[in-house]
Design brief:
This protein has 145 residues and is an alpha+beta fold. It has two domains: 68 residues, VC0802-like (2-Layer Sandwich); 74 residues, ACT domain (Alpha-Beta Plaits). 33% of the residues lie in helices and 42% in strands. A hairpin with a 2-residue loop joins strand 2 and strand 3. The longest helix has 11 residues. The relative contact order is 0.20.
C-alpha cells in the first residue's frame, strides 16, 4: 500500500514554503500534492519518494501531520476509465472519502490516489486488480518516475 502525508497547517503566506523547504533540503522528491483550504487552516497532502522520512522530519519540526495508507491505482489515460473505476467502487458499496489524480502524459497513464471508506482494503484491491487496474505501492510509484 502507498503512503500519503497529510499536513495540517495555518492558512497564511509562507506555511507551504516552510514545508517544501524541509522536504527539499532533505532530498525528498514530491511526486504529487494537493492543498485544500479549510478557512483559517489548510491541509496539504503529499505523495513523496520517502514518505516515512518526510513524515518524521515534518513531525520533528512540529508540524501536525499524519502518514496515511492510500490506494494508488494506475489507470490508462482513456475516456471513460475514471467512470469505470468509480462505478466499480460504487458496485462494491465503497465510498470515496478523498481522491486526487494526475496523468503522466509520457506514458499515457493516470495515477488515482484514493482514500476509501472500506474495512477490507485487500479485498477491494483484489476487486480492482481483477477488473484490470494496477495497484501501486510506494516502490511501484518510484519505478514509474
Amino acid at each position: 500500500m502507498a503512503k500519503q502525508i497529510n499536513v495540517f497547517l495555518e492558512n497564511r503566506p509562507g506555511r507551504i514554503e516552510s514545508i517544501t523547504e524541509v522536504i527539499g533540503k532533505n532530498k525528498i522528491n514530491v511526486w504529487a500534492f494537493t492543498i485544500q483550504d479549510r478557512g483559517d487552516f489548510g491541509l496539504m497532502k503529499l505523495l513523496v519518494d520517502k514518505p516515512q522520512k518526510a513524515y518524521l522530519l515534518l513531525a520533528d519540526k512540529g508540524y501536525a501531520c499524519a502518514l496515511k495508507d492510500v490506494i494508488v491505482v494506475l489507470v490508462k489515460d482513456k475516456s471513460g476509465n475514471l467512470h469505470k473505476l468509480s462505478a466499480l467502487l460504487f458496485k462494491n458499496k465503497v465510498n470515496i472519502v478523498d481522491a486526487h489524480g494526475y496523468v503522466m502524459f509520457s506514458s499515457k497513464e493516470g495515477i488515482c490516489t484514493l482514500d476509501l471508506n472500506v474495512k477490507d482494503t485487500k479485498k477491494i484491491q483484489g476487486v480492482l486488480t481483477k477488473a484490470g487496474f494496477k495497484i501501486l505501492d510506494d516502490e511501484d510509484l518510484a519505478a514509474y518516475r
